[in-house]
Amino acid sequence: MNAKGNARGGVLRWPEGVDSSSAVWLALMSLMLFALLLPFSSYVAALPLIQREWGLNNTQAGAIYSAYLAGYALSALLIIPLTDRVGPKYIFFASIMVSVVAHALFPLAAYGMTSAVVLRAVAGVGLVGIYMPGLRMISERFSEGGRGMAMGLFVTAFYGATAVSLAATGGLMAALEWRDAYLIMALAGGVSLPIAYFLLRNHDHVQQAQSSGRLDLGVLRDPRTRAFILGYTLHAAELYVARIWLPAFLTAILVARGIDSAQAAVTAATVGGIALAAGSVGPVMGGIMSDRWGRAPSAAAIFALSGACSLLIGWIGDFPLGIVVAVAVVYGWSIAADSSIYSTAVTEIADSDRLGSTMAVQAFLGFTGGFIGPIVVGGILDVAPESLKWGIGFSFVGLLAVAALVVLMRMPAETSVARAGVAGVPRSGE
What we know:
The protein is mainly alpha-helical. The protein has helices at 20-36, 42-54, 58-82, 89-109, 113-128, 131-141, 147-173, 178-188, 192-200, 223-256, 261-278, 282-293, 295-313, 321-337, 339-349, 355-383, 389-409.
């Protein structure tokens, strides 16, 4: 990869001023996150089998999935503000160990809803000390240019891992019990610890003199911050609904066409993984778009596409499978492409001594949306008529996209682009 140049002509290149060491550092940070998240979608891949084994309805299954997001959201209010004061290194190491252990215990110790909820919530606590602090460190390192692209690459590692997790767990389940497949993926996540140690062993944190390390809700006084955080919250609700219920939707389609339920679960996990893999390149593409055309306009355009897919996909289950998969692939890209835009915008707007609090509020509200969305759609699937439930469930998500479009399109043009000298994008007219 050329560390010089810019993102023009459709070629991914680094802006001027970004040296090769920063590019290598970012690649290793992304590899660390990718490895950590290898078991991320194992529960989703095994969900049809878990539901049958434990006798869960869709609302209960959605609650177990969302426990991960609830653990993340609640702990974010405590952990992320600490990065203003103590820095991310030790939080990183502890969080990786918590995540790996919690995921490994799930296939070993979860035998019902209570134990499953507890273990997934703990795994969510583990992720919070890695993902948002990682984005913060990247925003600081790439403050002179290419911030949207750099943060997009880190988020791309997140999405790539979730897709590989889903497809790989599904592949392993073709030969192994779901618990064995889940455990293999969880143990593979332990590779992240030595990578993180190599990256951060010499990391020095510059403490913000004005920071107490405690949560400051005053960050919400800025209307720009509120708008981008609301956009992120609606994005997360859409994203996590698709992550859990899109593979289940594909399973239902296959079962309705006469395929055995166990084989349908394996096939749906693989196909769903391919669809979500399309989203793996989404965040970096969205980051480049927002570097060039502005944060809010780019996010709004992507939301329009994902909303259209949400409103469509639940109604086409009887269409030829190739059409369903094609829409799912576009859906997988569009629900991912705007992900890094909100975090990039927040790092540009927030005061440096309150960035941890701003990102904590973003993480809490965003993952609260991600927590609520799958449960609401699970409830819709439980009570709606059988022939209409998938259409109604995904159409609800489409309405969230409409709300996000209203918020993002009302933002003033001068606040929808990155600030000059921060992310390398000039203001309009400069």
